[in-house]
Amino acid sequence: MKILGIDPGLERVGYGLIEQVGSRLTPLDYGLIMTPRIDLPDRLRLIHEQVEALVEAGHPDLIATERLLFAVNKRTAMEVAKALGVVLLVAAERGVPWMELTPPEVKLGVVGNGAADKRQVQFMVVKLLALTETPRPDDVADALAVAIASALRGRLPRG
Fold first, then answer.
1. For the whole model, what pTM was predicted?
2. Nearest Cα residue to 145 out of 11, 18, 8, 12
């Protein structure tokens, strides 16, 4: 199974495509989509085109994102929600199922602790995918963590 994890944002969209065969997880592609400071509709179009290209090239069986949780900055939340909407549009257009995990579910799936810190998550992303270094920037590591947690979802406790 191929899983495309996405960490949406308006300026930066982290992505990570992994393949799960049995218990083995293999990174296939990961990186960052950057948008210039242009009009919002054009930024969203660029995100759409680039996520669509990732889906076309990688043929994921699932697209996974982390549930947006913002308590302080509502403007940032709205900007990220717009980018997430574009990702969901690509999933719908391409017929790719979508999964959303909460931040504690991602941490639990990757580290085994729903209260893990960012460094612990990044350390386990490197170990689980046999990488030589932590993917940078954080958006990329976060996208890979979402993909990993989605792949291991069957092992997460329910309820």
1. 0.92
2. 18
Catalytic residue selected from 100, 133, 139, 142: 139
Cα 146 to Cα 7: distance, rounded to the nearest angstrom:
8
138 is catalytic: no
> Is 133 labeled as catalytic in the residue annotation?
no
Active-site residue 42, yes or no?
no
- Per-residue model confidence as pLDDT tens for the chain (159 residues): 999 999 999 999 999 999 999 989 999 999 999 999 999 999 999 999 999 999 999 999 999 998 876 555 677 788 889 999 999 999 999 999 999 999 999 999 999 998 899 999 999 999 999 999 999 999 999 999 999 999 998 544 343
Tell whether omega for the bond before 8 is within 30 degrees of 0, i.e. cis. Answer: no
